[in-house]
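Handout for the seminar on molecular recognition.
Each group receives one record of this type.
Step one: identify the two inputs.
Step two: read the structure output and locate the region that could contact NAP.
Step three: write two sentences on what you found, then compare them with the reference statements printed after the record.
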Amino acid sequence: MNTQATLGTALVTGASTGIGATYADRLARRGYDLLLVARDAGRLEALAERLGAEHGIQVEVLPADLISKADVLKVEQRLRDDSTITLLVNNAGVAMNGPLVSADLDQAEAMIQLNVVTLTRLAAAAAANFSAAGRGSIINLGSVVALAPEMFNAVYSATKAYVLSLTQTLAGELRETGVQLQAVLPGVTRTEIWQRSGADASALPPSMIMEVGEMVDAALAGFDQKELVTIPSLPDAADWDAFVKARAALGPNLSRNQAAARYK
Ligand code: NAP
């Protein structure tokens, strides 16, 4: 049996550029076959041609606008029905800039649609397929702003907090099924997302900006270590463990039959 047959196919959303295109490259190197999804068919086809030739893998492009319900259903159906798919990289996402009071709410709604609604539908379809097969993995792209919402746009940060929450709960639901979950929480990563959202990454200190290859390699190292949550830039994993422990300590007191004494 060759490596490809063992690894199966990775479906990567937002694969035309940036983090998604880099996942496609790294997964191709590992021997995955690829199913690449984004709107820009030309870019997807160019990437597919290169990766197929360089790594001898099968690469299919599936152009889709993941804000359009009809297109989402097409990708969702493929995720439900295709038994060769073993990995979903739920990466397609957009950002926006500026305060909520002056925001373009149609733009905010489209962002919620892509970052939250589509990501949820695709994760659910993959979870159904993979859990029935007793194997498979789902990688959801969150962001560190899930933990530091004051750093950036309100709605974007909230969509990324959703991604973290969804991944944590889904991991519990799928615990006994053999399906692996990972939320990746990148900090600022050099991609087109900054220009696309109208934010100026060049105003940030260079020490805050990671190159996309380094980010994805670190995220995949966390995946190999079976981490549920990976923060590529966090130097000391004990800081995250302490955060998880502090949250767990709140647990027994978050729902009780009496209000706290300070509120009486
Ligand atoms: P990017 O360079 O702007 O790439 C975004 C990808 O999503 C592109 O392939 C784009 O392809 C696709 N996409 C956008 N709208 C789409 C739509 N309606 N339907 C289908 N595909 C769509 O962004 P990135 O930095 O790689 O971001 C990838 C993920 O990482 C996002 O979820 C983002 O929130 C997250 N993230 C990024 C950073 C960062 O600093 N870069 C930090 C934390 C988290 P088409 O335009 O061809 O459709």
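Reference statements: The first helix runs from residue 3 to 7. The domain at 3-263 is CATH 3.40.50.720 (Rossmann fold).
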